[in-house]
Structure prediction request, 146 residues.
Amino acid sequence: MSTEVRASYTDSFGHAFDAKGRITVPAEWRQPSFEASLFVLPSSDKCLKVYPASWLGRLQEDVSRLKSADKKRKGVEDLATTAQSATFDTQGRIMVKEKLREGAGLKKNAVLVGRLDHFQIWDKAVWEKKDTARMTVEEALSAIGL
Prediction:
């Protein structure tokens, strides 16, 4: 097991998109231990998933081992056509393309939700309707067999 310490996206934050499609990323997630280069990806969960560039780099390494005709490789290549790179502006915002926002049903108000190795962007009204039961640390550790 690796003992490498990684920055983890935790907590949730309400923010709003501006007229140009920019949204503020929480200051906690912009600290030096977090990556400044991100990728925004569509999700079947009707939200956007935002991963640090190193995650995509690891995915590229895995894909490079597959033959060019492999269906798994083709699937990841198709995903790349929908991915958007993003970096922080001077005010800590990232710009999210309109087609990605529309595909996830994102309107003005959003919630950024930490998911350890990535974060998600949800429409605020959709997020508030989700059953997000609070889990204790004991329940979470038990669920993964620890």
Notes: The beta strands are 12-16, 22-24, 37-42, 48-52, 84-87, 93-95, 109-114, 119-123. The longest strand covers residues 37-42. The mean pLDDT is 88.
